[in-house]
Specification:
This protein is 55% helix and 13% strand. With 363 residues, it is of the alpha+beta class. The chain is elongated.
């Protein structure tokens, strides 16, 4: 790691008015004059650009009535685990294919029982289900990766895909995540990191849902009721946008038996909703922290969201309660500056729109 450069005070003084300086073995603490928390954002980012080539990063915090700027040594973690990520990707593709195969054959059996002659090709529907899940998940993570690179994370990395059991224990995957190799600079970066994934995943999720609904069949209500009583079929929480699409595209009477592709779209929308909840380090947690700048406020929002989820999906609600209880959201390096006005206004609207569109409703 690089040493603290001798002109560190000059570098800091180019952007902030220095009141006091304290040197430590691997860091320097500056007390600087308070500035408008809107104007300080750009000052801090300019300082980051000047310090990064020296292997240093600044951290700006409000300590009581004093504004403190710490400069410390840092190093970027090496890129590791590519082989493991490839193995997990292959495993996830396999479990999603198995899931699609189980769902496709289950759907075929129900259609035959209902006397519907227009049947699916199980191979084609399995492939459609697999692509309908994997492509939106990959695009979700690509959205994160693009904005991470914009904020200086370097080259794009392969996401970590998480396999899961096929039905009846799961749907082949728990989703994916991408490793952040550096701390977030400010609340603008946190917001963009959080909002990018849901937007990149929501749009293809809607497209998959539309295509899947077109492939689905309507079953007489009495038949559907019998299947539910026999445990052959059941209801999943339905995101609002999916319910609206289903009503707009209605082509018959009765209960819609989802095609494997439609089920993939519904799962993607549900994952988007869960990930957008203001909890811990979920995408919604990034967004909520960026807008509030407070772990205390994020915790309160997390409790409300988790308790509400208990009434929709008790197991998931309980898991979210635990996650909210045991984790804190790491703050950005610039804890003092406010997010940009554009993100405070339009960001809230975009975030609430995602939550509303994917909110599970009763049908």
């Amino acid at each position: 790691m690089s040493e603290i450069p001798p002109d560190i005070e000059t570098l800091v003084a180019n952007h902030f008015t220095v009141i006091d300086v304290v040197y430590y073995p691997n860091a320097v603490e500056f007390e600087v004059e308070k500035v408008d928390p809107v104007n300080s954002r750009e000052k801090f980012l300019e300082l980051v650009k000047e310090l990064s080539p020296h292997g240093l990063l600044p951290k700006l915090t409000l300590d009581g009535n004093s504004l403190k700027l710490h400069v410390f040594k840092t190093s970027v973690p090496s890129r590791r685990g590519l082989r493991g990520r490839i193995i997990l990707l292959i495993a996830t593709i396999i479990t999603v294919i198995l899931s699609g195969w189980v769902i496709s054959h289950g759907t075929l059996e129900l259609l035959r029982e209902a006397g519907i002659s227009e049947l699916y090709d199980p191979i084609i529907s399995t492939v459609a289900h697999t692509l309908g899940l994997m492509i939106p998940l990959a695009l979700h993570e690509l959205g994160h990766a693009i904005y991470m690179r914009k904020w200086g994370a370097g080259e794009l990395e392969l996401p970590v895909f998480i396999p899961a059991p096929p039905p009846p224990f799961g749907f082949g995957t728990f989703g994916a995540l991408i490793i952040q190799r550096k701390p977030s600079f400010n609340r603008d970066e946190l917001f963009e990191l959080g909002i990018s994934g849901p937007i990149f995943g929501l749009i293809p999720g809607i497209v998959v849902s539309i295509l899947g609904i077109l492939q689905s069949h309507y079953i007489p209500t009495s038949v559907a009721r019998t299947w539910i009583e026999q445990g052959k079929a059941g209801f999943l929480p339905t995101p609002l946008i999916f319910a609206l699409l289903e009503n707009i595209m209605s082509r018959g009477e009765g209960v819609l038996l989802l095609s494997p592709l439609a089920l993939a779209g519904l799962i993607i929308l549900l994952i988007t909703f869960l990930n957008a909840l203001p909890i811990s380090q979920l995408d919604g947690g990034h967004i909520a922290y960026a807008l509030t700048g407070s772990n205390r406020k994020l915790k309160r929002m997390g409790w409300l969201a988790s308790i509400g989820l208990l009434f929709i999906a008790p197991v998931l609600g309980a898991l979210m309660l635990i996650l909210n209880a045991i984790t804190l959201h790491p703050p950005p390096l610039d804890e003092y500056s406010l997010p940009s006005e554009k993100k405070r206004k339009w960001g809230v609207l975009a975030y609430l729109s995602i939550l509303l569109l994917t909110f599970p409703v009763l049908q």
